Amino acid sequence: MKRINFLFVLYLVAMVACGGGEQPAAETPVAAPMQDDALVASPLETAPPEQGEEVVQPQMVEESAAVEEPQAQDQPLILAQADQASAVVAQREWKFTEGTHYARMTPTQPTVGGADKVEVAEIFWYGCNHCYDFEVFINRWSENKPANVRFVRIPATWNPLVKLHAQLYYTEEVLVNNGKIADPGQFRAAVFAEYHRRGNRMASVDAIQAIFEKHGVSADDFKNTWTSFEVSQKLRVADDLQRRYSITGVPAVVVNGKYRSGAAEAGGYPRLLELVDELVVRESIR
User: Fold this and answer.
1) 201: burial class by Cβ within 10 Å (0-12, 13-18, 19+)?
2) What's the whole-number mean pLDDT along residues 181-194?
3) Phi-psi category of 37—alpha, beta or left, where left has phi over 0 and alpha has psi -120 to 50?
């Protein structure tokens, strides 16, 4: 009987040894080796938190997702703003009509300044009677223009005489910026008066220099400015913009490199400036 019991015990031991893959884990302390202070954790392993320390699970964030997510959140807002602006433009009752009172240039052309403001450009020539008449209107408008508007003048450059007067204008502009001309408005009026009242066609550099010297500009300041790279660059820009804007007559007004008009299309000088104000509003709410 004792031999049978002994054999039975051996049998049970053998059974436990063959099928014991399910339970021994609960009996074997896996973390026991980490209790040895001499062991150092691998860079890929994280030491167990001390008692009371909050356990934070690391999360993997893809770089592309981190960059694109803000754009995805902002996009509906941008689209909503664009749609709202388009709705305002569409619902507003406009006084002037494209194709009748002004032309839309496609694509939009460059401007003299940056995109921080709505640019209103007057293309003119000192020898043009209509530009001379328009001067009082555009000057009054520029004194009361909206804060978000930048007003610039671009001289015409059609032929040698007109281009000579364009060089006069940019020499004047640089000398004004450098503080060499005390009263810019008076000087500009004097140049118009030379041509239209005194019959001075200003057809030579010497004739033009005499006007500058009459208003306190030294011969050296005039010559250095007249032949400067700055003036030459301004002339190149004016010539390029005149072609881009398809200017065939002056005075002409271009709003933001996008809309072009003149007194004939708008219906007179006061109406032209009303049109300019309306186009500025269009550009301000888009």
Assistant:
1) middle
2) 97
3) alpha
First to last CA, the chain: 104
Give the pLDDT confidence of 87-141 residue by residue, as tens digits.
Answer: 555 567 899 999 999 999 999 999 999 999 999 999 999 999 999 999 999 999 9
3-state class (DSSP) for residue 8:
helix
Q: Which residues contact 200 (CB under 8 A, 6 or more apart)?
A: 194, 207, 211
Could you read off the pLDDT of 13-43 as tens digits, one per residue? 444 344 444 443 434 344 443 443 333 333 3
Domain range annotation of the chain: 103-284
The CATH class of the 103-284 domain is alpha beta
Cβ-defined contacts of 217-224 (< 8 Å, 24+): 217/175, 217/180, 217/181, 221/175, 221/180, 222/171, 222/175
Per-residue DSSP letters for 242-267? Answer: HHHTT--SSSEEEETTTEEEEHHHHT
CB atoms within 10 A of CB 256: 23
> What are the angstrom distances between the C-alpha of 200 and each of 17, 133, 164?
121, 18, 14
Cut 0.85: pTM above it = no
**Which of these, 109, 211, 215, lies nearest to 167 by C-alpha position?**
211
Omega prior to 107 cis, within 30 of 0: yes
Question: Strand pairing partners for 252?
Answer: 123, 262
